[in-house]
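Allow me, if you will, to draw on your knowledge of protein folds for a short while. I have a record of one protein: its chain in single-letter code and its fold written as discrete structure tokens. Kindly check, if you would, that the fold set down in the tokens agrees with what the sequence suggests. Thank you for your consideration; the sequence and its tokens are set out here:
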Amino acid sequence: MTLSALSYNPQTAKSFIDEVIERSHQNLYACYQCRRCASGCTVGEETGITPDYLIRLVTLGDRDAAVDNALVWQCVSCYTCGTRCPNNIQSGRITETLKKMSREEDVIPLNPNIAYFHDAFVQGCTRWGRVNEMEFMGYYELKNIGKHMLSFQFRKAYEEIASQIKLGRSMFKQKRLHLKLHTSRGRKEVKQFYKIAVKKKASLKKERRSQIKNRQE
């Protein structure tokens, strides 16, 4: 795997790494690039970027590359990286932090389908306290199909609908598709937490836009 050369940006490096450390609660300064995390990363080969490289992007102040890459969205949070790290750095928490930052800055993911998947999961949990398969997949597919329709890719939209109908039939026959609606206690509390998080996100997004504007000026 060949990666491009990195450049150091002293003007933004310190503030950026401190922000990531504060939000992820991981001491990135303790990383000495032994690459033990890279050898165990389950998605590194597919994404073309490994946890050690991502940490390096943060420490060098390359904010754009750090929040806009495949690993941030495709990390499965298996925590193999943290288990292997001699300094107990959990890179999964770093990718989660960078993912939040990318949403705050309205960065379009390299693979929008993954973002749709995350949104569908959060919406389902917030509404019912747990995920219901039919609602979860229905919301996800509507977003996915809508993307094709808005870009006038009607054939792709049709193929997506056809493939999901075929998959749904197969899962239903094997009793792997559950139609029953499941709920859990404490849904009101979950919704309240979500509302607080949304307000905080809006505030952070406003602050981030102001910072980006100042950097551009």
Remarks:
- The chain has two domains: 10-108, 112-184.
- Residues 187-216 form the longest helix (30 residues).
- The chain has a mean pLDDT of 86.
